[in-house]
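user: Here is a favour to ask of a fellow structure person. I have my own habits and do not want them to colour yours. Could you put it straight underneath, so I can go through it closely?

assistant:
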Amino acid sequence: MLTYGRSAVLVELDSADEAAALHARLADGALAGLVETMPGLHTVLIRFDPAVTDSKRLALQLAEVWTGSDSTSDAVDGPGDEVCLRVDYSGPDLVDVAAHTGMSTSEVIATHQARRYRIVLIGMAPGFYFIAGGDPRLRVPRRPSPRVEVPRGALGLAGEFTGIYPRSGPGGWQLIGRAVDELWHPTRLPAALLSPGTSIRFAAA
């Protein structure tokens, strides 16, 4: 754990699932003096009120909270509403992903739908969803050559994550489909329909 001035600490975790689990665990206000939590891919930044607590006391509370949690199961199987996202599984890299994983295209689709996921971060581009919790068999590298133009709503795989592009633009993820639901609109407040910590499943459109 790293201190950030007098009113914040950065907790580094071993995986995105663990970071999502800690962020979800802290959502119920388990820490005295907690002001805000901001998840990263493998980190959680915690802002606290220095009039109530300090980094040393916070570290002790965090140890108790984390010891009492069920680690990564909180990330994908914890309490909370579940959102179903509809996907048109006709992405241009679906065949390549199947070849890389040794599955058929139908097996890739079924495997992608079989797990419960959680949004761990919105970043890279405004509204880009980093989604963890997928089957390890679907971990594929980014494309060797990024595309100049990826369509809005494209759903791709890269490493341990599923990602959804909020708008058209360049990108190098392996595209297996397109989310048909509107998940980002720049004139809406908040612009992102979903937030970090949201539990989701994927279904064929």
Remarks:
- The first helix runs from residue 16 to 26.
- The chain has a mean pLDDT of 87.
- Residues 183 and 193 are 5 Å apart (CA to CA).
